[in-house]
């Protein structure tokens, strides 16, 4: 099986790089499972205090793998192996930092939102464009984006599929830090080194308390069920066909 996660251990922190550049680091099932395994391993390592996620060759992650979603039905969605990977990522106790350049869309944006801090380069592009495929985010993106932005701006991005720049992401409060293009990883490393000198148990309790305050399991379950139902619709099939053909979709509400 191809290795999609490059790991680099530094003094007190680790860097995990999504490495599928031919697909702009789109998240397929193998990549997500490898990422979850790597995160779990470093979460258990007492020498690692924090973990950075970044993407290879100028992009964070351009979304989910459309080829994997194209033929999935609602039943397939219920048994999707990616769910276990997303759950494992959510269980990481140590602080996670996303260093974002280029595309950070769809599932890639949901992954960044699962991180505790986001360092966004000005050239980054953030968005949840699933609506253009007749779908919605299915890994918590609706709930987390609403918590970050409030109703109006969350609705704006989710209903239109509009994207925003890394500069806007920082101004809107999605990103905790902003940098010029090409400097997000260096800034994330500075931040990770600072956190590595902190009190690890206190940091973990802060993370747990903040995430518990934001956690609404009923809302997350509704989001996931809605995503699964949409997998079997004609509009989803049309949305993906239009995406592949580089044309405007003709949605019919069925």
Highlighted features:
254 residues; alpha/beta; 2-enoyl-CoA Hydratase, Chain A, domain 1; six-stranded mixed beta sheet; three-stranded mixed beta sheet; lyase; EC 4.2.1.17; ClpP/crotonase-like_dom_sf
Question: What is the element layout, followed by pairings?
Answer:
Elements: E1 5-9, E2 13-18, H1 29-44, E3 50-55, H2 66-69, H3 74-78, H4 82-90, E4 96-100, E5 103-105, H5 107-114, E6 117-121, E7 125-127, H6 141-149, H7 151-160, E8 163-165, H8 166-172, E9 177-179, H9 184-196, H10 200-214, H11 217-230, H12 234-245
Parallel strand pairs: 2-3, 3-4, 4-6, 5-7, 6-9
Antiparallel strand pairs: 1-2, 7-8
* Fourth-level CATH superfamily: 2-enoyl-CoA Hydratase, Chain A, domain 1
Number of strands: 9
**CATH fold category name:** 2-enoyl-CoA Hydratase, Chain A, domain 1
Give the domain tally: 1
Order of helices and strands: EEHEHHHEEHEEHHEHEHHHH
CATH hierarchy, class: Alpha Beta
**CATH architecture identity:** Alpha-Beta Complex
Strand order of the largest sheet: 1-2-3-4-6-9
Ends: how far apart? 38 Å
**How much helical structure, as a percent, in the residues?**
40-55%
InterPro entries: ClpP/crotonase-like_dom_sf, Enoyl-CoA_hydra/iso, Enoyl-CoA_hydra_C
Pfam families: ECH_1
Protein name: Enoyl-CoA hydratase
Family: Belongs to the enoyl-CoA hydratase/isomerase family.
